[in-house]
C-alpha cells in the first residue's frame, strides 16, 4: 500500500532495539561490512501484548485474541520473584497472517477495559516471561508516577521512595 | 492522508507521547547553534503527491480549486519525471486504495488534458497496463475500480470510449452464464458493467445515452433473469417454506432496475459527484469539450477469464434501518442505494490494513459524493425531518453503519475476518461518538428485533459483535429496553440471545462486573456459580460414587505420577462400576479421570493444558479404544465447565488438536447424545463447538488441496496426495452428513411423535425447536455447499506456475501465490474465506 500506512508492522519498540543493536554492531565491526540481517519478524506468529491489568486472565486473553485466528498458546508475563502476572503476555498464533491481523484489528482496543498494546515478537524463549524491572515486575512499573489500580498502584520505586518518608 | 499516524493505544500513553514530542523538537535543532528552523521548501513532486492523496478530504476547501491547482502543477512541471511518474503511481494507488476519490483524481486528469494532452497518453497507457494485469489475474474488484477511473475520463476518449470494452465483457458474461447455471463470475461482470455505466454517464462525456441504453438492454437478459440458484444460500431471512422466493431481491436485479430508472430520467445520478464541473464561467467549461481526444486503451480479454482468488456469490442489499418511518438510508428502491453501498463497501474492505483510516474515510464519506446527498453530519434522528425538509434525509452515520454491517453480515462469508468490521465500528464510534453511537443503537435494536427470523449464522455474528463491542465501551447498554423478554422461555431466540450475550460479555470480563450493570430482572440470568473462579469438583463430596478414587487420582496427577499408578486407579473404578451394574465401566472411569484432570488444572488454561500434554498418551489410549470413551471426554469437559462454558469450548478445540478426540465424537456427543429434543441447538456454545470442529476439518481439506496443487510434485507424489485428499473429502462429507441428519431430524420432528402433544405450551415449544433445527440445517448445508464448491473451483484451476529461482534480494510473487493457499484457516470459522483471504490488495504487494 503506498498511500496509507499499514498497521501490521512492528512498532517503534522493536525498530529502536534493532537500531541500537545495529549501531553497537557497526561500532564494533567498523572495518568489516555489516551483513544484511534477515528480518526475524518476517514470519513471526507471536504477539507481545502489553498494558494488561495484573488481574486479566488467560481465558480473557484467549477470548479476545482468538478472534484473529486460532491461538496456539498463551504465555503469561510474570513477576520474576512472586511468579504472579505482571501485566504482559505472549500470544502465539499458528500463522504469521493471524499475527498481522491481530496488529490490525485488536491492537489498541480494549481487553478487561484497558487498551492493549500489541507488537510482533520474534518468539517466546524461556526466561522472556519474567519482568526485568528491579522489583521483579516490568520496567515501566518501576518509576510510574501515575496511580494505576490494575498494575499495583504507584510505581514500585515510587512506593519505596515515599515509604522512606514514613 | 499519506502520513496518517495511527494512534497507539495504552502503553503508558501520556508519558511516552511527551517523550516523543520533546525528541521531535530536539531533532529540529540545527546542530545546536541556530534556533530557527530553516525553511524547507518541498520539491513540487512531494507537494503534488500530498495534494493529490489528500484530494477532497477537507470539507472547507473547494475541491474544484485543488483539482485545477494540481492540474496546473502537472502541466507546469511536465519535464519533471519524478513528478509525472509519481502522479501516475498515485493515480493508480488511490484508485485501488481509496476508491471514493476516483472521480476527483480523474477530474485532475481531465483538466491536465486541456493543458498537456501528451501526459494523458502516459496516464492511459499506465491504466491500460494495470487494467490488463488485473483482468488477466482475475482481480475483479481492482479491475472494476480501474474501469471506474476510465469511465470518469469518458469525456476525453475518441469514438465510443469505454463502451466497446463493456460490450465485450458482457459477451463473456453471457457465455459464462450460458455455460453453467452456477456461474457467478458472469454476474460479477454484469454488476461491474452496470456500475461503470453509471460513472460514465456522470462524467463530462455527452451523448452516450444510446450506447448506455443498448448495453442496458443486453444486461437485462442476465440481471433480470430468474433468481440464481445460489441466491438461496445468501438470503439473510430465509423462509422455512421449501421453494419460497428469497426475502431480498439480489443486488444485480436491483441495480439493473435502478439503471433503467436513471436512463428514463436522463441519467441524473444525483449522488455521484461531478468534480469536473467546477464553477467556472461557461466559456471556460468548454475547455474540456474542446480538449484533445484520445483512443481508449486497448485491452485483450484472455480466452478463459480467471475467477481470481475470491469465491464469488450473488449479493443482496441488506440494511439494518429497513423498517424505520423515515428513510435515513437509501431504500432498496432508490437508484442511489447500490452506488453508495458499492463505493462504501469497497472503501471499507480495501482499507483492512488500517482501521483508523477506514474509520476516518467513513466519517468523511459525505465529501466524496454530490453535495446534499446526505443531511449534515451529527444531525439527531428526531431532528432529521425538520432539518431535511424536502431534501434527502439520509443520515451519513446511518449509511456508514449500514454499509459496515452489510459487510459483517454478508453470506456466505464476509471478505475479511469479522473482527475487522468490529474494529471499524469501534473506530467510527471513537471518532464521532455523539454522532455514531445513536446510529449503532438503532442498528442493534433492529437486529435484535429480527433475531428470530434471521439466518442463524448472522444472528451469531451479531451476538459476537455485540458482546465484543460492549467490551470496548464499558459494557453499557440499555438492557431495560428488553426487560420483557427476560420472561420468555430460554429456548426462544430473543431470550437465548440475551443469555448468550451475557455469557460472552462475562468471558471478556467477569460475572460481577457484568451483573453490576444489569437491571434487577436480569440478575437471575447470571447464576452465582458463574461468579466462582473455578468450578466445584463433584468428587470432593465423599458421598459421590467413586469419590475416593477421584481424590486419589487428583493426588497422583498433582504428583505427576507414573502411568501405571493411574492405570491402577482406573481399573479399580471400572471394577466397582461393573459390580454396580453400570452400562459401560470404561466410560465411567474416563469420566472420573478426565474430570479430575480438569479439576487439578482448573486454575488456568496453561495449567490444564500442561496436564493434558503430560497425560496425552493415556488419554489417547483411552479414546482410541472406544468411541463411547471419546464422547465421554467431550462430555466431561463441557459438563465440568458448564458455568464458564467458554473455557470448555476452548478445551474441546485443543483436545481435537491433540488428536485425542475426533470431530465425529464431538458432533455425536453434542447433537445426538445431548440433543435434548433440540434444546441444545438453542445454545451458542453448541454452535461454537460444532462450528469450530467443522472449521478444523475444512481447514485440513484446504491444506491438502494446496499440497496436491503444488506444481513441484512428481506424478507419484501427486497421486498419493490425491488419495489422501479423497479420504479427507469423504470424512468431511460424513461429518456434514452426520450434522445434517441430527439437526434435520429436529427440524422435521413430527408433532405426533411427541408425547402430550395436546398440550398447547408444549406444542409451541416443539415449534420453536423445529425452527432452530431448520436454521441449523440451513447453516451447515450452506457450509458444506460452499466448501464443496471451493474444492471444485480450486481443483479446476490450472496449477500455479513453478516458483522462480529464489533471489536473495527480491521476493518472487509466484512463490507468494504458492504459499497463500497453505495458510491455515483457523478456528474462528465464520470469519475467514480460508485460502482465498487477503485477496486483491496483499496479492499485488505494491509497497
TrEMBL record, chain A:
Source organism per UniProt = Lithohypha guttulata
The protein's matches in SMART domains, at most eight in alphabetical order, are given as:
RRM
Source taxonomy: Eukaryota, Fungi, Dikarya, Ascomycota, Pezizomycotina
State the source organism's domain of life: Eukaryota
Q: What is this protein called?
A: Nuclear cap-binding protein subunit 2
Annotated Basic and acidic residues bias: 23-42, 139-149
> Quick one: where's region Disordered?
1-42, 127-166
Q: Which UniProt keywords apply?
A: mRNA processing, mRNA splicing, Nucleus, RNA-binding
Cross-referenced Pfam families: RRM_1
* Family label: Belongs to the RRM NCBP2 family.
Occurrences of domain RRM (ranges): 45-123
From TrEMBL, chain B:
Q: Which GO terms describe its biological process?
A: mRNA export from nucleus; nuclear-transcribed mRNA catabolic process, nonsense-mediated decay
- Gene Ontology molecular function, alphabetical: mRNA binding; RNA cap binding
Q: Where is this region: Disordered?
A: 1-41, 793-847
Question: MIF4G-like type domain location, by residue?
Answer: 330-520, 537-788
Name a single GO cellular component: nuclear cap binding complex
Pfam families hit by this protein: MIF4G_like, MIF4G_like_2
Domain of life, source organism: Eukaryota
Output the Gene3D superfamilies linked to this UniProt entry.
Answer: 1.25.40.180
Q: What is the designated name of this protein?
A: Nuclear cap-binding protein subunit 1
From which source organism is this entry? Lithohypha guttulata
Amino acid at each position: 500500500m503506498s498511500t496509507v500506512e499499514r498497521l501490521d508492522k512492528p512498532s517503534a519498540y522493536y525498530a529502536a532495539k534493532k537500531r541500537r543493536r545495529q549501531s553497537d554492531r557497526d561500532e564494533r565491526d567498523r572495518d568489516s561490512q555489516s551483513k544484511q540481517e534477515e528480518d526475524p519478524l518476517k514470519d513471526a506468529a507471536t504477539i507481545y501484548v502489553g498494558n494488561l491489568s495484573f488481574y486479566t486472565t488467560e481465558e480473557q486473553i484467549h477470548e479476545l485474541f482468538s478472534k484473529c485466528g486460532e491461538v496456539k498458546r498463551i504465555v503469561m508475563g510474570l513477576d520474576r520473584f512472586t511468579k504472579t502476572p505482571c501485566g504482559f503476555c505472549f500470544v502465539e498464533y499458528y500463522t504469521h497472517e493471524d499475527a498481522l491481523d491481530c496488529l490490525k484489528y485488536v491492537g489498541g482496543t480494549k481487553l478487561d477495559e484497558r487498551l492493549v498494546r500489541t507488537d510482533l515478537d520474534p518468539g517466546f524463549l524461556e526466561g522472556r516471561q519474567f519482568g526485568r524491572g528491579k522489583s521483579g515486575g516490568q520496567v515501566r512499573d518501576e518509576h510510574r508516577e501515575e496511580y494505576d489500580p490494575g498494575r499495583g498502584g504507584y510505581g514500585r520505586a515510587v512506593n519505596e521512595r515515599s515509604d522512606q518518608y514514613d | 492522508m499519506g502520513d496518517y499516524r495511527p494512534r497507539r493505544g495504552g502503553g503508558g500513553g501520556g508519558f511516552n507521547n511527551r517523550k516523543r514530542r520533546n525528541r521531535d523538537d530536539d531533532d529540529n535543532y540545527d546542530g545546536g547553534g541556530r534556533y530557527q528552523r530553516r525553511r524547507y521548501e518541498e520539491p513540487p513532486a512531494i507537494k503534488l503527491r500530498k495534494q493529490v492523496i489528500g484530494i477532497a478530504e477537507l470539507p472547507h476547501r473547494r475541491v474544484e480549486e485543488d483539482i485545477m491547482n494540481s492540474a496546473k502543477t502537472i502541466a507546469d512541471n511536465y519535464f519533471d519525471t519524478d513528478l509525472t511518474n509519481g502522479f501516475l503511481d498515485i493515480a493508480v494507488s488511490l484508485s485501488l486504495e481509496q476508491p471514493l476519490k476516483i472521480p476527483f483524481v480523474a477530474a485532475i486528469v481531465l483538466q491536465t488534458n486541456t493543458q498537456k494532452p501528451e501526459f494523458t497518453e502516459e496516464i492511459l497507457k499506465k491504466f491500460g497496463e494495470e487494467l490488463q494485469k488485473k483482468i488477466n489475474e482475475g482481480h475483479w474488484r481492482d479491475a472494476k475500480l480501474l474501469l471506474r477511473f476510465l469511465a470518469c475520463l469518458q469525456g476525453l476518449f475518441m469514438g465510443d470510449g469505454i463502451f466497446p470494452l463493456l460490450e465485450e465483457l458482457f459477451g463473456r458474461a453471457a457465455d459464462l452464464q450460458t455455460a453453467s447455471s452456477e456461474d457467478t463470475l458472469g454476474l460479477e461482470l454484469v454488476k461491474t458493467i452496470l456500475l461503470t455505466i453509471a460513472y460514465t454517464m456522470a462524467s463530462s462525456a455527452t451523448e452516450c445515452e444510446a450506447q448506455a441504453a443498448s448495453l442496458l438492454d443486453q444486461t437485462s437478459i442476465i440481471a433480470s433473469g430468474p433468481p440464481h440458484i445460489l441466491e438461496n444460500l445468501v438470503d439473510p431471512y430465509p423462509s422455512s417454506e421449501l421453494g419460497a422466493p428469497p426475502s431480498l431481491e439480489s443486488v444485480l436485479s436491483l441495480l439493473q432496475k435502478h439503471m433503467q430508472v436513471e436512463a428514463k430520467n436522463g441519467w441524473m445520478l444525483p449522488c455521484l459527484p461531478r468534480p469536473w464541473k467546477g464553477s467556472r464561467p461557461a466559456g471556460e467549461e468548454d475547455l474540456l469539450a474542446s480538449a484533445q481526444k484520445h483512443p481508449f486503451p486497448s485491452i485483450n480479454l484472455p480466452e478463459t477469464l480467471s475467477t481470481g482468488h475470491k469465491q464469488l456469490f450473488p449479493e443482496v442489499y441488506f440494511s439494518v434501518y429497513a423498517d424505520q418511518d423515515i428513510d435515513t438510508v437509501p431504500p432498496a428502491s432508490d437508484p442511489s442505494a447500490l452506488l453508495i453501498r458499492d463505493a462504501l463497501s469497497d472503501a471499507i474492505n480495501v482499507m483492512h490494513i488500517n482501521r483508523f483510516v477506514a474509520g476516518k474515510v467513513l466519517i468523511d464519506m459525505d465529501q466524496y459524493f454530490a453535495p446534499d446527498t446526505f443531511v449534515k453530519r451529527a444531525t439527531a434522528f428526531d431532528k432529521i425531518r425538520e432539518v431535511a425538509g424536502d431534501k434527502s434525509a439520509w443520515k451519513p452515520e446511518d449509511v456508514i453503519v449500514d454499509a459496515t454491517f452489510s459487510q459483517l453480515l454478508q453470506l456466505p462469508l464476509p471478505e475479511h475476518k469479522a473482527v475487522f468490521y468490529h474494529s471499524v465500528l469501534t473506530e467510527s464510534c471513537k471518532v464521532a461518538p455523539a454522532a455514531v453511537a445513536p446510529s449503532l443503537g438503532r442498528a442493534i435494536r433492529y437486529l435484535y428485533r429480527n433475531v428470530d427470523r434471521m439466518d442463524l449464522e448472522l444472528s451469531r455474528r451479531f451476538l459476537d459483535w455485540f458482546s465484543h463491542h460492549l467490551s470496548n465501551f464499558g459494557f453499557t447498554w440499555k438492557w431495560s429496553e428488553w426487560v420483557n423478554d427476560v420472561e420468555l422461555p430460554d429456548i426462544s431466540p430473543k431470550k437465548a440471545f440475551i443469555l448468550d450475550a451475557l455469557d460472552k460479555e462475562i468471558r471478556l470480563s467477569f460475572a460481577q462486573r457484568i451483573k453490576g450493570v444489569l437491571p434487577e430482572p436480569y440478575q437471575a440470568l447470571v447464576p452465582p456459580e458463574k461468579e466462582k473462579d473455578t468450578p466445584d469438583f463433584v468428587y470432593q463430596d465423599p458421598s459421590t460414587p467413586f469419590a475416593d478414587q477421584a481424590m486419589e487420582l487428583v493426588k497422583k496427577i498433582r504428583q505427576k505420577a507414573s502411568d501405571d499408578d493411574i492405570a491402577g486407579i482406573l481399573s479399580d473404578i471400572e471394577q466397582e462400576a461393573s459390580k454396580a451394574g453400570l452400562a459401560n465401566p470404561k466410560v465411567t472411569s474416563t469420566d472420573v479421570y478426565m474430570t479430575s484432570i480438569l479439576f487439578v488444572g482448573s486454575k488456568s488454561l496453561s495449567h490444564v493444558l500442561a496436564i493434558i500434554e503430560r497425560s496425552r498418551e493415556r488419554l489417547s489410549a483411552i479414546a482410541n479404544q472406544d468411541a463411547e470413551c471419546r464422547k465421554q471426554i467431550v462430555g466431561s469437559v463441557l459438563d465440568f465447565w458448564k458455568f464458564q462454558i467458554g473455557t470448555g469450548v476452548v478445551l474441546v478445540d485443543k483436545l481435537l488438536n491433540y488428536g485425542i478426540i475426533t470431530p465425529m465424537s464431538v458432533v455425536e456427543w453434542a447433537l445426538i447424545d445431548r440433543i435434548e429434543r433440540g434444546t441444545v441447538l438453542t445454545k451458542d456454545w453448541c454452535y461454537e463447538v460444532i462450528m469450530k470442529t467443522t472449521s478444523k476439518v475444512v481447514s485440513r481439506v484446504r491444506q491438502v488441496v494446496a499440497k496436491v496443487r503444488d506444481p513441484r510434485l512428481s506424478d507419484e507424489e501427486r497421486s498419493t496426495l490425491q488419495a489422501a485428499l479423497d479420504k479427507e473429502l469423504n470424512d468431511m462429507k460424513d461429518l456434514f452428513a452426520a450434522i445434517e441428519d441430527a439437526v434435520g431430524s429436529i427440524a422435521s420432528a413430527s408433532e405426533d411423535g411427541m408425547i402430550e402433544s395436546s398440550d398447547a405450551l408444549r406444542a409451541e415449544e416443539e415449534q420453536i425447536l423445529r425452527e432452530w433445527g431448520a436454521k441449523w440445517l440451513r447453516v451447515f448445508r450452506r457450509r458444506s455447499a460452499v466448501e464443496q464448491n471451493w474444492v471444485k473451483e480450486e481443483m479446476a484451476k490450472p496449477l500455479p506456475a513453478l516458483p522462480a529461482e529464489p533471489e536473495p534480494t527480491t521476493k518472487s510473487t509466484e512463490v507468494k501465490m504458492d504459499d497463500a493457499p497453505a495458510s491455515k484457516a483457523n478456528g474462528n470459522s465464520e470469519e475467514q474465506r480460508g485460502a482465498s483471504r487477503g485477496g486483491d490488495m496483499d496479492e499485488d504487494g505494491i509497497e
